[in-house]
Amino acid sequence: MTRIANTHNLTRRLVDTLGIAIVTGTYGPGRPFPTEAQLCIELGASRSVLREAVKMLTAKGLLSARPRRGTIVEPEAYWNLLDPDVLRWTLERKFSPELLAEFTQMRLAIEPRAAMLAAHQATPAALQAIEHALERMRAAENGTDDPLESDIAFHVAVLSASGNRLYAQLRDLVATALRFSIPLTNRTKGVALANVADHRRVYTAIVAGNGVRAFRAMEALLSEVMQLIEAQPASTPRGHGRTKG
Questions:
Q1: Which pTM does this prediction carry?
Q2: 147 near 137, Cβ under 8 Å?
Q3: Burial of residue 6 (number of CB atoms within 10 Å: 0-12, 13-18, 19+)
Q4: What 3-state DSSP class applies to 151?
Q5: d(CA 241, CA 151)
Q6: What digits encode the pLDDT tens for the residues 154-168?
């Protein structure tokens, strides 16, 4: 088991290294990707680990194999931005309020509906998970929990409580995006912590079984985030801090 875990960790590190290299232009689109032998020497990786990493990058849309051309780097238009790794690499390459705005538009289309569904069909365990996340957010106000992680936990818990398996699978994507959007909205709003009251309104509506109120509370929360992101200039440098998610 230890050997399997080590191999998995090596593959993940290699995927991260090669993914960043592709996204930052070290390996340009439309050009041949380095050969297996070259990369094994350059990165000190075994062929089996390298092949698995290339397979994963191909599934993410960054690479493709073509007859008589070998493996090539795909243009950005083919990258799977719904993959948390690809989203993270893209945002790390050049912090993009535009991309975060597009992602928040998607959140606005999904999370209010997820809150409405949660109000109608959340299980006791799902409600407890939302409540626990809210308690963590309150603890963060006192400095006894992490503001970012507790905020993320709240949104992930609501997605899971919806009962929609596809919504629930967005948890890693939402968490990745929040780690970039929170510092951005923090600089604009000038606060250090999430607005717990806004999140509590979502939770209260869900517990009460009021789907319409849950929808509107989540929509209001995310609409403010959207306004803060849209207020940014086209090229805003990355910063650090925490605010509402």
A1: 0.82
A2: yes
A3: exposed
A4: helix
A5: 13
A6: 999 999 999 999 999
